[in-house]
Specification:
Layout (H helix, E strand, L loop, with lengths): L1 H24 L5 H22 L12 H21 L8 E5 L5 E5 H25 L9 H6 L1
Antiparallel strand pairs: 1-2
């Protein structure tokens, strides 16, 4: 199961890089695309902080594209390192954290990772829709394309 989650994070990194590539190339992409991409990367950072014991809840800041790319690269490396280092049983370990409203929760690592991957896919689809609506060819980020490379 550990390898499955490593693969999902590698896919997530690949898909994020596809979005970065399109946004860098797009002459006219809506500002909202960068807002959503910032949300994706900041969410990954925040959940990483929760795993490490840092309580940051910064989900909706506006971050420049070049900074987001750097942060995304660091994020992905950190997540992949955590996954590589853990024992299979650690996926069931529960982490306690507080959401943005201060409510306390406890969630297993495997559920956090599953949430992050789904959350990122959902928001990348929003970005792609905005790009298409603005006559920009969207990034192909479907998992099946990742497996075919």
């Amino acid at each position: 199961m550990k390898e499955h989650f490593i693969n999902l994070f590698e896919y997530n990194d690949w898909a994020n890089r596809k979005i970065f590539y399109v946004l860098r190339d797009a002459a006219q992409s809506p500002k909202k695309t960068l807002d959503i991409l910032s949300h994706i990367i900041l969410s990954q950072e925040t959940w990483l902080g929760r795993i490490k014991g840092d309580y940051t809840n910064s989900f909706w800041e506006n971050v420049e594209l070049s900074d987001l790319e750097k942060r995304s690269e660091i994020n992905s490396k950190d997540w992949l390192q955590i996954l590589s280092d853990l024992d299979e049983r650690d996926l069931d370990k529960k982490y306690t954290y507080h959401n943005t409203k201060g409510a306390r929760f406890e969630t297993s690592l495997k559920d956090i990772i599953t949430h992050l991957i789904n959350h990122s896919s959902y928001h990348r689809a929003q970005i792609n829709l905005l790009l298409r609506q603005n006559n920009v060819e969207p990034a192909i980020t479907d998992y099946i394309y990742y497996t075919r490379r």
